[in-house]
C-alpha cells in the first residue's frame, strides 16, 4: 500500500500512485519533515476534450443488465473512494487515485457521434444505459452539458434509455425525462449510499448530499419518471446497517423500485479504499476489511460473474435476505415494464427528400 497523503479537501483518494502500466513507479513517503510543511493547496480539476470516434460502448457481461452504454465523461470529480471505474484511468497513463477525480475528459462530440451511430443503416435499437462507468451529472456537466445534448438526441430519435446518477443536477433535465417516461422510453436510477452526511462527505466528497438525492427522487417521481434507488455499494461494517432506512426513505420519496450491489475492490481500488479507511475510519478499518473478505471467499475481491455484484457466504446472504425483506415491506417490488423499442425512428435531416407516400 502506498503511503497516504494528508486528506485533501473535497477529494476521496489519499494517494496518487502511478498507473499499473507505467514502467516507473512513484510512491509518496514520509521524510520526517511533513509536520513543518505548509498546508496543501486544494487540488484543481483539469478537464480536457476526449476526441472519441464512437460513443456507444458495448459489453457482453451477463450481470450488468445492459449491453450498450454511453459515458459522456472519463474520470469523475465526485471522488467516490469505492468507484469501480477508477482502474480505467490507468489505460490513460494516469493514476486511479487523485488523477481519476481531478484529471477529467469529456466527449464534446458525443451527441454528433451518437446521431451518426443511430442513423447507420444496420443499427438495431436496444436500451442504452447512460453512466455505466462515471457519473453523467458530475459537477462539470453543469457547464459542459454533454449529457443534456445526448438526451436531446435520444429524444429526437425516440430511443429508449436508462440513466444512473448520484447528483441532483438530473432535475435540470426533468423536461426531457418526463416526456420520454410518458412514452415508456426511460427509467432513472439514483444512488443513495448513506443518510449520514458526515460519512457521505468523506466517502463521496463532491457528490450531492443524501437529502438532495432524496429530493431528486421526489422531484422526478412527481414528474412521472420511474425511479429506482440503488443502495450501492453495501459496505459491511460501515453503511450496511442503513439498508432498511435508506429503502424506507426512498419509498417515502416516491421511488418505484430498488437494488443493491456489494462493495467491489478490483485492482487499485483495494489499496485506495484501505488508505481511506486508515485515515477516515481507523477504529473500524480492520473489521470492515474482515467482513469484506468474508463476502469474497477470503479475498478482497472476486471477479467471477454471478457473485461479483452480491458476494457469497453468510455475510452476503444475510444482506440479501434483509434487502428482499425491506423491498417487500416498503412496496418497492413494483413491476417495471420493458422500455419500448418500437418507437425508435430517425428524424428527417434538413434537405432529406419528403416521402410522397407518407400519410399524416
Give an overview of the whole structure.
It is built from 11 helices and 10 strands. With 360 residues, the protein is of the alpha/beta class. It has one domain (44-329): TIM Barrel (Alpha-Beta Barrel), CATH 3.20.20.70. The relative contact order is 0.13.
Keywords:
10 strands, alpha/beta, TIM Barrel, 360 residues, seven-stranded mixed β-sheet, single chain
Secondary structure layout plus pairing:
Elements: E1 46-49, E2 57-58, E3 68-70, E4 73-74, H1 98-102, E5 103-106, H2 110-118, E6 128-130, H3 141-144, H4 146-156, E7 161-165, H5 174-181, E8 186-191, H6 197-203, H7 210-222, E9 227-234, H8 243-253, E10 257-262, H9 269-280, H10 285-295, H11 314-329
Helix pairs in contact: 2-4, 7-8, 8-11
CATH topology: TIM Barrel
Q: What separation lies between the terminal Cα atoms?
A: 67 Å
Order of helices and strands: EEEEHEHEHHEHEHHEHEHHH
Q: Given this structure, which CATH class is correct?
A: Alpha Beta
SSE class: alpha/beta
Proportion in helices: 25-40%
Low confidence ranges: none
Number of helices: 11
CATH architectural grouping: Alpha-Beta Barrel
Rg over CA atoms:
21 Å
Largest sheet: 7 strands, mixed
Q: CATH superfamily, called what?
A: Aldolase class I
Order of neighbouring strands in the sheet with most strands: 2-3-6-7-8-9-10
- Oligomer, anyone? single chain
The total tally of domains equals 1
Mean pLDDT equals: 91
User: What overall form do the CA principal axes indicate?
Assistant: globular
Sheet-strand content, in percent, reads 5-15%
Please provide the count of β strands: 10
Amino acid at each position: 500500500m502506498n503511503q497516504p497523503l494528508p486528506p485533501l479537501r473535497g477529494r476521496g483518494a489519499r494517494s496518487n500512485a502511478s498507473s499499473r502500466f507505467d514502467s516507473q513507479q512513484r510512491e509518496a513517503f514520509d521524510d520526517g519533515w511533513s509536520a513543518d510543511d505548509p498546508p496543501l493547496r486544494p487540488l484543481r480539476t483539469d478537464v480536457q476534450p476526449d476526441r472519441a470516434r464512437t460513443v456507444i460502448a458495448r459489453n457482453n457481461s451477463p450481470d450488468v443488465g445492459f449491453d450498450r452504454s454511453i459515458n459522456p465523461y472519463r474520470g469523475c470529480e465526485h471522488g467516490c473512494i469505492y468507484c469501480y471505474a477508477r482502474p480505467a484511468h490507468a489505460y490513460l497513463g494516469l493514476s486511479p487515485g487523485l488523477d481519476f477525480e481531478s484529471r477529467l475528459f469529456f466527449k464534446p462530440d458525443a451527441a454528433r457521434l451518437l446521431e451518426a451511430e443511430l442513423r447507420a443503416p444496420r443499427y438495431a435499437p436496444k436500451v442504452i444505459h447512460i453512466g455505466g462507468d462515471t457519473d453523467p451529472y458530475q459537477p462539470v456537466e453543469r457547464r459542459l452539458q454533454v449529457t443534456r445534448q445526448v438526451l436531446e438526441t435520444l429524444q429526437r430519435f425516440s430511443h429508449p434509455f436508462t440513466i444512473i446518477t448520484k447528483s441532483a443536477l438530473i432535475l435540470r433535465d426533468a423536461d426531457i425525462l418526463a416526456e420520454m417516461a410518458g412514452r415508456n422510453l426511460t427509467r432513472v436510477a439514483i444512488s443513495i449510499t448513506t443518510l449520514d452526511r458526515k460519512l457521505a462527505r468523506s466517502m463521496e466528497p463532491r457528490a450531492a448530499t443524501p437529502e438532495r438525492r432524496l429530493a431528486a427522487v421526489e422531484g422526478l417521481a412527481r414528474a412521472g419518471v420511474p425511479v429506482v434507488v440503488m443502495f450501492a455499494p453495501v459496505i459491511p461494517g460501515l453503511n450496511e446497517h442503513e439498508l432498511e432506512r435508506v429503502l424506507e426513505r426512498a419509498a417515502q420519496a416516491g421511488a418505484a423500485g430498488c437494488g443493491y450491489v456489494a462493495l467491489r475492490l478490483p485492482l487499485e481500488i483495494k489499496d485506495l479504499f484501505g488508505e481511506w479507511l486508515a485515515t477516515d475510519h481507523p477504529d473500524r478499518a480492520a473489521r470492515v476489511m474482515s467482513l469484506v473478505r468474508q463476502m469474497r471467499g477470503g479475498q478482497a475481491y472476486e471477479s467471477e460473474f454471478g457473485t461479483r455484484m452480491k458476494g457469497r457466504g453468510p455475510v452476503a446472504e444475510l444482506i440479501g435476505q434483509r434487502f428482499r425483506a425491506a423491498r417487500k415491506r416498503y412496496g418497492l417490488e413494483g413491476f417495471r415494464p420493458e422500455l419500448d423499442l418500437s418507437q425508435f425512428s430517425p428524424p428527417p435531416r434538413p434537405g432529406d427528400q419528403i416521402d410522397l407516400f407518407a400519410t399524416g
